[in-house]
Specification:
It is a single chain. The chain contains 24 helices and nine strands. It has 591 residues and is of the alpha/beta class. Strands 1-6-5-2-3-4-7 form a seven-stranded mixed beta sheet, with helices on both faces. The radius of gyration is 25 Å and the shape is globular.
């Protein structure tokens, strides 16, 4: 049963006004399948007794909010709230959603404007006044909640009998089923105890089917009541330029051939990728072995951009894994994809529990971060160093390659995310929020909760173990032959393997010989290289290829699970294949 929070402005009274049911699609539920909020909207219309709402249908709607999109939408740290590449992914997702709705006799009302202004203009402009009832997926971050509050205020002013329902729908597990005292607010602040208890005590709900044509069909009468303006209609779809991006930013959104793959937004592309990875290419059985890769489309699932935008449901992915286990093979790899999805759940639940603390410099540690806790430290902000990190010019090839990949493609492997987070927040001692903020601008798979929760944890500000990643060792372990860094840092293309991850060790003569003069062709290190210590994290981090930032809970590496083969990653050395044995396989159940 869907978790529903209802905000009715006043008890319904006998009224001659008809009720208009709006399903307000947000950034995290751009799909028809397994969409609890959409199902709830349909059920409300069906059960409405005072008019023919069921016959007329519901109004699906999406708003491009200028506070999120465009060159003027910036954060307090100076980054764009949404870069042009992700904006194009959203445009494509909305276009695909509209096409799917139209095929079922419905449509998608798309608008450019602040949602509260769009709804106000829409309802005030109707000749025949209605009672608005809006349903949307529940989000828990402060900015999204502020928008909800403003929409609610508009509805209350326009019509006292209006209502707004929020429906939970972006996690595998229902928050109300969590097996902790005080429920979600009693959950552990570290992943492993959370995982152990949830996997033992909870079940994953079965995904809901896509609504039928009879459930979604919108009557011509209802369509005629809707706005039809240049920025709000059943046919309007903005371009990047219309959203306020500059020509330079629009060019940046173009596909780079070095990217791991071409990501196309939308439910159709999402379901196609799930089918391609799990069934057509039969890659699920070796996921655990290959997930630490950094080059190519298939070292990991690459589901994350579609999961982040709700183009595919995590419960749907989990059911496909279970089906694969029944029909083909069950092993550690088939479980590990579901394990990754549990990380997503953890960080959204963590955000509910701790609220805005995940956005603060001291994180959930608060005052303890000022000397009382072992992870305490003094933060700095050298803007030259920060810019070098953003541009991939730190002088550390693994960091630089990952940051350049992010800038050119909007994607970065989980291994890369953990390393660049550790480097910025620990080696450079830079205010970690600037890193999280930059990721918010650049990532195709940006998810509020995973991104900020991971950065906060990677910086040590959630109180867990502080994992400093040894960048050089990580480079040699996961890019043994230097293929990845040479792909993204062509200055290093002629540098031999023994120097490619430590170019500062080349003599002046060698730099000239290999056409990579430090300070000229490739940067000198922005911070002095440090010698390895036993306290550094040589292979740690949470297990998987879809998350963000530095999770750092367990050791991870390569190797094989039972029954799944052992497809070696040519860049993974023997010590990393050994590390994987410390990652214990768990379980999951559907209820």
């Amino acid at each position: 049963m869907a978790r529903v929070a209802s905000l009715s402005m006043k008890a319904a009274s006998s009224s001659s006004k008809k009720t208009m049911f709006i399903h307000w699609f947000r950034h995290g539920d751009l799909r028809l399948h397994d969409n609890p909020a959409l199902t709830h909207t349909i059920d409300l219309a069906k059960n409405q007794s005072n008019n023919n709402a069921e016959e007329e249908g519901i109004v699906p709607m999406f708003c491009f909010d200028p506070r999120v999109f465009g060159n003027s939408a910036t954060s307090e740290f100076g980054s764009l709230k949404c870069g042009s590449r992700r904006a194009q992914f959203v445009i494509d997702s909305v276009a695909d959603l509209r096409k799917s709705l139209e095929e079922k006799g419905s449509g998608l009302l798309v608008a450019y404007g602040k949602p509260e202004d769009v709804f106000e203009s829409m309802f005030e402009g109707m000749e025949e006044k209605v009672i608005p009832k809006i349903v949307c997926q529940e989000e828990v971050a402060s900015e999204e909640k502020k928008v909800n509050k403003k929409v609610k205020s508009v509805l209350k002013r326009l019509e006292q009998n209006s209502a707004m329902d929020y429906v939970w729908g972006s996690t595998m597990y229902d928050p109300d089923s969590l097996p902790f005292q005080d429920g979600l607010y009693g959950m552990p602040d570290t992943f492993t105890p959370f995982r152990n208890k949830v996997e033992k005590k909870c079940t994953i709900g079965h995904p809901l089917p896509s609504p039928s044509k009879s459930q979604l069909a919108m009557s011509g009468t209802l369509k005629s009541k809707l706005p039809d303006t240049k920025s709000c209609s059943l046919t309007y779809l903005p371009t990047l330029s219309e959203l306020g991006y500059t020509p330079e930013q629009i060019k940046e959104a173009e596909y780079d051939s070095r990217s791991v793959m071409a990501f196309k937004g939308g439910e159709s592309a999402a379901l196609a990728r799930v089918k391609d990875y799990i069934w057509d290419k039969d890659l699920l059985k070796t996921y655990f072995d290959t997930r630490n890769g950094m080059l190519g489309a298939d070292y990991s699932t690459k589901f994350s951009p579609w999961l982040a935008h709700g183009c595919v449901s995590p419960r749907y992915v989990a059911t496909q894994c279970q089906k694969y286990e029944k029909e083909r093979v069950q092993n550690k790899s088939t479980y590990w994809v579901v394990f990754e999805l549990l990380w997503r759940d953890f960080f959204k639940f963590f955000a509910v529990k701790h609220g805005n603390a995940i956005f603060f410099l001291d994180g959930t540690l608060g005052k303890k971060a000022h000397g009382e806790h072992p992870n305490s430290r003094r933060w700095s902000l050298d803007k030259r160093h920060l810019q070098a990190w953003k541009e991939g010019k730190t002088g550390y090839p693994l960091v630089d390659a990952n940051m350049r990949e992010l800038a050119a493609s909007g994607f970065m492997s989980n291994r890369g995310r953990q390393n660049v987070c550790s480097f910025l927040s620990i080696d450079m001692k830079t205010d970690w929020r600037y890193g999280a903020d930059h990721f918010e601008q650049e990532l195709l798979d940006y998810d509020i909760y995973s991104n900020w929760g991971n950065w906060c944890a990677g910086a040590g500000m959630t109180g867990g173990r502080l994992n400093r990643f040894n960048i050089v060792k990580q480079s040699k372990d996961y890019d043994q032959n230097g293929d990845y860094v040479k792909c993204w840092c062509p200055e290093l293309k002629d540098v031999p393997i023994e120097f490619v991850h430590e170019p500062w060790k080349m003599s002046k003569e060698q730099q000239i010989e290999y056409e990579c003069v430090l300070g000229v062709d490739y940067p000198n290190p922005v911070v002095p290289p440090s010698k390895p210590t036993y306290r550094s994290n040589d292979g740690g981090g949470r297990g998987g290829g879809k998350g963000k930032g530095g999770r750092g809970q367990n050791k991870r590496g390569g190797g094989g699970g039972r029954g799944g083969g052992n497809k070696d990653n040519k860049n993974r050395i023997k010590s990393q294949r050994k590390d994987m044995k410390s990652l214990k396989e768990g379980t999951y159940r559907f209820g």
